[in-house]
Write a structure and sequence with these properties.
The complex is a heterodimer of chains A (477) and B (209).
Chain A lengths: L7 H9 L2 H22 L4 H17 L1 H14 L2 E6 L2 H14 L4 E4 L3 H5 L2 H7 L3 E4 L2 H9 L15 H12 L11 H18 L2 E5 L2 E3 L4 E6 L3 H7 L3 E7 L3 E2 L2 H16 L6 E5 L13 E7 L3 H6 L13 H4 L4 H4 L10 H11 L7 H4 L6 H5 L6 H14 L5 H14 L2 H18 L5 E2 L6 H4 L4 E2 L6 H16 L1
Parallel strand pairs in A: 1-10, 2-3, 2-4, 4-7, 5-8, 7-10
Antiparallel strand pairs in A: 5-6, 6-9, 11-12
Helix pairs in contact in A: 2-12, 3-12, 16-19
Chain B lengths: L1 H15 L25 H12 L2 E5 L5 H11 L6 E3 L15 E3 L8 E5 L2 E3 L4 E6 L6 H4 L3 E7 L3 E2 L5 H6 L8 E5 L4 E2 L7 E2 L6 E7 L1
Parallel strand pairs in B: 1-12, 2-3, 2-4, 4-7, 5-8, 7-12
Antiparallel strand pairs in B: 5-6, 6-9, 10-11
Classes of the chains: A alpha/beta (477), B alpha/beta (209).
């Protein structure tokens, strides 16, 4: 997907005035509130959270070891492990496997690593037909849009929009009546996709975790599409990234419960499957070939520095579901595949700093994302690191730079600072003396459009502080 | 691409500031935390979880009653067409019911799949299915109705109790371990929860007491 994060501001502004999107985001806020109730009602959630973090920190500190162990165990199970440093290498690996399998069509489950490596375009260029099987991804394939959420890719689409899309695209398949009921729409998609499951030569899925102990990969879905994609075609391709490895099945168990709870409030998703290689002799179902692609794409670099905690991310989406920015502007405004708070850290790391300056600056630093993150990733701290990187590399917007420079000049001259703030306070008190509030302020129209500023009353903070110190000293003597 | 492999592993080691094959610190935990509620009978907890996930359960005194119960289920839901039955359950008295049974995996035309669970997990309300020659995985996903035989003695309290059982040498190798916690569901159409997305619209447990 083309990086368009540089347009964040205009895209966000447009999103706020898009009625369909606003209706859909209101729906997401309700859902997020429901999930929080489930999480808060889980007695040992905090213990689970602390353990999951410690397990992942240990794994990342020995990532080379666990990757090698995973690879050896996977090969033993008949899986072929492919390593890709870049998205282009990964695309080539997948296309080559499809060609070797003489694949005309592939069925695909939801995979964010697939989005990251641009697999959809690569398959199209290779002339291989692709059918998305996750219902949300299927809707987006019809709409020709990227996902706007890492778990619910089509959460930005309302029921009415899905009705229209199905009507338009399923006309050619002989349907005449307009379907209104969600259950009817689902039945239609199920029927159409069922055929594709049986036809496809290759099935492509993501992986939520890789397990070093036994070389298996874990797949989490509620629809069961991931399992059908894994089981029915002869060739299975699993797209993963290097930080998804965990030492053991027991470790995966800890993370799986945390993931399901944080993502949807379920104790486990409907289908949580551990796949270990190809089908054994005498088995009726399963793939004859199993390929796992391990993508790096900048992750090994992240391991070295301040962004290592981001590699703990289990993609539950709690950070975006609880973000006051994401929950109003939606995912597309962020301009790449990972939106919301986690995306504001991932995107600069996996693409570049220059075109993603707006993302960490769109953050209000309210800290909610870090509070809800099951892996305790210090997202706001990392936003601050990015902002200081912008400053050092002179990427900060000119007006901001100028403003910060002016403030720094003032703040380092205490007398001047006191004088000016006292003047400003008196002016504001005078301007708002009638109503006790100010409905307009110079340079802050965006702020005062939504609310009034209370007019300053009495002394400034510094005067009050001095008074307090003096009183304290007086009472001590 | 072995050169990519070398490059990635070397980049990882460089980032971690270590040479190849350095000493590994021991894993920080012996015991894993699992979701559970102290002082609650696992069976009662399992039933409570099933209420939430939308899975139904009927208790049978003996496994030989399974075919009869499946026949009654078909009548209740007005289901016709052949049953796909796991080889693990092939020896049950299916003939008595008059149902047409295909032993093996499910195909697209089977409305019902009957399979045997390896275990159940009370804390999460999950069924544990091992995909192998005796229990083909297609049974769990292709039919609209998934009927699962679970021996009550195989009901575990927490997820964490499952892993040692899987590593037991008697279990052989399974191509997949599938934890099933509810029917196939989706909320992708306008945020409404719907059952039967790609897999079963209903999961029914036949619990052998």
């Amino acid at each position: 997907m083309q990086l368009s994060s540089a347009n964040f501001k205009s895209a966000a502004r447009a999103a706020l005035h898009e009625p369909n999107l606003q209706a859909a985001m209101a729906e997401n806020r309700n859902f997020a509130a429901h999930v929080r109730v489930q999480v808060d009602g889980t007695a040992n959630f905090q213990g689970l959270r602390a353990q999951a973090k410690a397990i992942k920190d240990h794994t990342l500190a020995h990532l080379d070891h666990y990757l090698e162990r995973y690879e050896a165990a996977a090969i033993k199970q008949g899986t072929q492990v492919h390593w890709a440093q870049t998205p282009e290498q990964a695309q080539q690996i997948v296309v080559d496997i499809c060609r070797q399998a003489s694949a005309r069509s592939v069925i695909k489950g939801k995979t964010m690593i697939g989005e990251e490596m641009g697999i959809n375009d690569a398959l199209a260029r290779a002339g291989i037909e692709r059918y998305e099987t996750d219902l949300g991804e299927y809707i987006l394939q019809l709409a020709d849009e990227p996902p706007s959420h890492i778990n619910g890719p089509a959460i930005h689409k309302t029921l009415e929009q899905v009705q229209d899309l199905f009507h338009e695209h399923h006309k050619d398949l002989g349907r005449e009546s307009f379907l209104h009921e969600p259950a009817e729409l689902l039945a239609e998609a199920r029927r159409l996709l069922r055929k594709r499951f049986f036809e496809a030569e290759v099935g492509i899925t993501g992986a939520n975790f890789l397990i070093a102990e036994d070389g298996s990969h874990v797949l989490v879905t509620n629809e069961g599409n991931g399992d059908l994609t894994s089981l029915l075609p002869k060739v299975r391709i699993v797209l993963a990234s290097i930080e998804k490895v965990l030492p053991s099945r027991a470790d995966a168990g800890v993370h799986l419960q945390l993931l399901a709870l944080s993502a949807t409030g379920q104790p486990l998703t409907s289908y949580t499957s551990l796949y270990g290689g190809t089908k054994n002799a005498g088995e009726l179902d399963g793939a004859e070939q199993c390929h796992v692609v391990l993508l790096d794409n900048g992750r090994s670099e992240m391991l070295a520095g301040e962004f290592r905690p981001m590699l703990r991310c289990i993609r539950c989406a709690a950070c975006m579901d609880n973000c006051p920015v994401y929950n109003w502007v939606g995912g597309h405004a962020y301009g790449w595949i990972y939106p919301g708070p986690m995306g504001s850290i991932w995107t600069p790391q996996l693409t570049n700093l220059e075109q993603t300056v707006d993302l960490p600056n769109a953050c209000t630093l309210n800290g909610r994302c870090a509070e809800v993150c099951p892996m305790q990733i210090p997202l706001p701290d990392m936003m601050r690191v990015l902002r200081s990187q912008h400053w050092q590399q002179q990427l900060t917007a000119t007006t901001t730079r100028w403003g910060i420079g002016l403030w720094a000049a003032l703040a380092s001259r205490p007398r001047l600072y006191r004088l000016l703030t006292a003047m400003a306070a008196r002016t504001m008190a005078w301007a708002g003396s009638k109503r006790g509030r100010l409905s307009r302020l110079p340079l802050a129209r965006g702020w005062t459009e939504q609310r009034d500023m209370p007019a300053p009353q009495g002394a400034t903070f510094q005067q009050l502080w001095q008074q307090r110190q003096a009183d304290k000293n007086g009472s001590e003597q | 691409m072995s050169s990519s492999r070398q490059a990635i592993l070397s980049d990882v080691r460089k980032a971690l500031g270590r040479e190849a094959h350095s000493v590994i610190e021991p894993h920080p935990f012996k015991e894993r935390i699992a979701l559970s509620q102290a002082g609650i009978d696992p069976y009662q907890q399992f039933l409570a979880r099933l209420e939430v996930t939308g899975v139904t359960l009927e208790a049978l005194a003996d496994i030989s009653q399974v075919p009869e119960a499946v026949a009654a289920f078909c009548t209740r839901h007005q289901l016709h067409g052949p049953l796909a039955v796991a080889p693990a359950l092939a020896s049950l008295p299916w003939q008595q019911t008059g149902l047409q049974t295909d032993v093996g995996t499910a195909q697209g035309h089977h409305p019902i799949g009957v399979a045997q669970a390896f275990a159940g997990i009370a804390a999460t309300g999950s069924l544990v299915m091992l995909a192998n020659a005796d229990n083909p995985a297609g049974l769990n996903f292709l039919p609209e109705y998934h009927l699962v035989v679970l021996d009550k003695s195989r009901l575990l309290g927490q997820l964490d109790q499952l892993w040692p059982l899987l590593s037991h040498p008697d279990e052989g190798t399974a191509q997949a371990v599938q934890l099933i916690t509810g029917p196939s569901s989706t909320a992708d159409i306008g945020g409404q929860l719907l059952y039967g997305a790609h897999g079963p619209r209903a999961v029914h447990i036949l619990l052998i007491d």
